[in-house]
Specification:
The chain has about 150 residues and is of the alpha+beta class. The protein contains eight helices and four strands; from the N terminus they run βααβααβααβαα. Bound molecules: inosine-5'-diphosphate (IDP) and magnesium ion.
Length: about 150
């Protein structure tokens, strides 16, 4: 089963969207295997967004993501990396499909609600940045046979 790193960004936490966003992933059929509320350091934000260092928006991205608590999570399930990106929508909330998380809750590129890993390799890297191995839990859900034809 795949795992993806999903982070509810400070704007969404402040706006009280945490529960609604978690609910979307649960209802879709994904399993929450790690979660913490944390205020991320400049160092962690820099490592997480290292590919964007040097870009014009990097400094504002650092300000934004370190400004207040985030909810860092790991979600598990079939093709969760690509599917979570679809559920999240385009980076710019104004271009994100209506019904997607960014398309539903946001209007500003610099306040775009949520992060989701863009590949399996990114997911692995990001999960390791935010969680100790023992913080990512292995457990079964009794409903799994109703979520997957072959559990
Ligand atoms: P993603 O979050 O959809 O993967 P990326 O291109 O990886 O988008 O950018 C990372 C984050 O940087 C975005 O989610 C957004 O918060 C911020 N960002 C990206 N481009 C811009 C921009 O042009 N202006 C302001 N913030 C930006
Ligand atoms: Mg990205």
């Amino acid at each position: 089963m795949e795992r993806s790193f999903i982070m509810i960004k400070p704007d969404a936490v402040q706006r009280g969207l945490t529960g609604e966003i978690i609910s979307r992933f649960v209802k879709k059929g994904y399993k929450l295997v790690a979660m913490k509320l944390m205020q991320i350091s400049r160092e962690l934000a820099t490592m997480h967004y290292t590919e964007h260092q040097g870009k014009p928006f990097f400094e504002s991205l650092m300000q934004y993501t370190t400004s207040a608590p985030v909810v860092a999570m790991v979600w598990e399930g079939k093709e969760v990396v690509a599917t979570a990106r679809m559920m999240i929508g385009d980076t710019n909330p104004l271009q994100a499909a209506p019904g997607s998380i960014r398309g539903t809750y946001g209007v500003d590129l610099g306040r775009n609600i949520i992060h989701g890993s863009d590949s399996l390799a990114s997911a692995k890297r990001e999960i390791a940045l935010f969680f100790q191995p023992e913080e990512v839990l292995m457990y079964s859900l009794t409903l799994e046979n109703w979520m997957y034809e072959q559990g």
